[in-house]
Every structure is written in C-alpha cells, then in structure tokens.
Amino acid sequence: MTPYQRALKKRALGAAAAALATALFATACGDGGDDAADTTSESEEQVAESNDADVMFAQMMIPHHEQAVTMADLADTRAGDEVRQLAVEIRDAQGPEIEQMETLLDSWGADRESEMDHSDMDGMLTEEQMTELEGAEGERFDTLFLEFMVLHHEGAVDMARTELDSGINPEARELAQEIIDAQEGEIRQMNEMLGVEDSGDEDGAEATEEEAHSGH
C-alpha cells in the first residue's frame, strides 16, 4: 500500500467514525420530523456527488501537477529541442487540469489543500532532486528531466488508478482516466528518448527508478 493509499484509508476511517457519531447524536435527540429527513436527503446527495477518494485525488494531484509544471518551466532555458517540446506539452496539459481540479474541490465545498505531507506522494521529487535538476543544463538536464519525469508520471498514474478504484465522481474519474492515458504514453515516449526498453512490467519500472537514482 502506497503512502497515498494509506492516507486515503485513514481519511475514510475518520469519516466513518464521524458519520457514526452524528447518527448516534441524532438518535439521542429524538425524532426531528421533516427537517431531519430533509437534512438526511441533502447529505445523501452530497455523498453521491463525491467521496473522500475524489477529494483526496484532487487535493493531492494539484501539487503533484504543480511540480511537473515547475519542472517543465526549467526546461525552457536548459533543455535541448526535443525535451523542451515535450516539456511544453506537459505544461499545456497539466495547467488546465490543475484549474479543473480546483473547480471540482470548490464545487464539493472542500479545501484545495490537504493535510497530507506532499513529500509522501507517489513520484514526488525531493528537494535534493529538484535542486539537482535546477543546477543542470544541456544533455545532463535532458537526462535528469526525463528520468525524474518518468518517476513523477508513474506516481501520478498510480494515484489516478486509486481514484478509479475508489472514487465516485464522474468528472474526477474521467480526469483520472485521461491522466492515465496521457501520462502512460509520455512514459513510453520518455523511455524511448532515454534508450530504456519498455518491458511492460514492474521489473522494468523498478529498473528505471534505480537508474534515476544511481549516482545522482
């Protein structure tokens, strides 16, 4: 279980406990009549609109995307033509997705930020890795950018798959599938640019991760 999945499970347990406490309190207070029924109906509608998985998906994917955009911005003045063009495509795709997720959170009445430590997110680069990328140029930058972005994308794909497994909001689930489709294609593209053979299994992914961290 990834840190993201553990945090989601913890949040779900907390929500269940809160719901139980609310139900017990309502029972103790007696029959609330039509007002109580209306409140229950409204609550059910809100639950049907989104759940904890949807909220966490958006809250976590926003800073995840923001880091990818920051990485893409670095490529403007440091990367070769091929990597620079890829970075532009990543930025153009993920910028609007950030705005979409912020709009979703607002519509759900949820905070845009989560209490979860962003460094625990799947594929999130450390401060040391970002510093290393910022200090590189030319071919060295291209290699680091591709290796780090592969790891970053793999983390986003894992988070999106968790949303498909646990989320209920149609728009959030559709966005998750779009992220999977787009970023898996970019992972294949970046591995080709790195000369890494796409084995299509976890061993290949682990090998890519080892390469990204070895000697860095």
From TrEMBL:
Keyword Signal set for record: yes
Acidic residues biased stretches: 198-209
Keywords: Signal
Protein name: DUF305 domain-containing protein
Pfam family, one: DUF305
Superkingdom of origin: Bacteria
Signal sequence interval, chain numbering: 1-28
InterPro entries: DUF305_CopM-like, Ferritin-like
DUF305 domain segment(s): 54-194
PROSITE patterns: PROKAR_LIPOPROTEIN
Span list, region Disordered: 195-216
